[in-house]
Fold:
Amino acid sequence: MKGKQRFMPRKAGDYAISSFFEPRNVAIVGSFREGYFGGYVIVKSLLNAGYGGAIYPVNPGYREVHGIRVYSSLSEVPDRVDLVMIMVNAKTVSRILKECGEKGIRAAIVVSDGFAERDETGARLQKEIAALAKKVGLRIMGPNTAGVVNAANGFNPCPYEAGYYRLPEGGTAICAQTGMINPQAVPYPDLHFGVSKICDLGNKCDVDEADMLEYLAGDGKTKVISMYLEGIHDGPRFLKLAKRATIRKPLLVLKSGRTEQGAEASQSHTGSLAMDDQIFNAACLQSGVLRLERFGDIFEMPKIFAAQGLPGGNRVGMVTVTGGVAVIAIDECARNGLSVAKLGGGTAGELEKLFVGLGKNPVDVGPMMAAVPNAFDLYPRILGSLLGDQNVDALFAVLWANPSGNIIGRYIETFEGLKARFRKPVATWIYGPDRGAVYELRDRLERAGFPVFDTPEKCIRALGLLCRYAALNRRG
Structure:
């Protein structure tokens, strides 16, 4: 048994939701057979992640797992249990929930599938467990969920083997109706941004996106909320909460089921009901929700918010080594509500003195690099001039990763020097013939606090979201 940790819910009505992320202890009901899924993996993950609470495995067919005693039933557990994780046959879940009620447990994660996502019989079972939970005063996450993660306290009860257990702590919360956001599906240590909470809502028979939004909006560890939703149970409540939340922190939402076919697929995945996409889009505009376009966005776009300050406007400066990418970026700016900054006279003049043709935005340093010996020595002055220009609110930077790697250190020195002088946001795209050099430069830049994206278009879309949120923030 692990030692107990101090647990103080923020307010009485918040207790059950807090218990999903900050439990003093957790009971696990299911199989503990060694493998790549199940209770065996959950206990292993909690131990390796550094969870400090008590762990109570429950199954009459086992005596111990990972050196921890296994109890034959929940009633045998010698403590008040904050959270239970259930991985049994769908038809058995009701019986376990009744035991939870008798034990006084107030929060349960039902990992088990075979409910509304399966067929009509499963849908009836789901209604039964929802009604039972309400009757006994129990909050349910799921069913059909991969669960939650709290990076701050090591609470990572992932039921699937991920191969790693500790997640980098940071300010991004990711909430979705899919286990594809949980550790077994995402290499979080390689993403170069930290997370606060992860939550797979599953079929949402009880705890839904509005409950999670309310919790995350008040969570001091969370600075950015990123959500993937297939449907919304209570649209008016969600949007009311969203309007309040976006005053304090950005809320990014990817909503699937935009087409008739997508809506049908979401019904079979989690039993979600579709919401008219045009109505949802209009509501998002009114409530300050920032809509995402692709699944990868829920992981990538938050880092533009987590790493940097808000811009004062929507004017973008660009430094590139290739004119073609500059044209692409200009088109993308127009699609994302951004304008290409017109450089101030002082900035234009200073850049022209460095090299003829540099004094206009986008600033293409390619010709200079080819014509001037040791041209890279001028690079810090070029970036500094742009970021110091009052007409520039944000910067898009294109970097060439030299295959010999001898300028990577100079890039890092330049960007770290800029960080000490300027608070304006910078989005960076790196290219080059050596994948290792590109990855090394990306890794070092992001560890220094500068978000890097894998396409120029993503850089501009990220800056567009950031500028849109900044405009909402200024309006209050």
Notes: The radius of gyration is 25 Å. The first helix runs from residue 15 to 21.
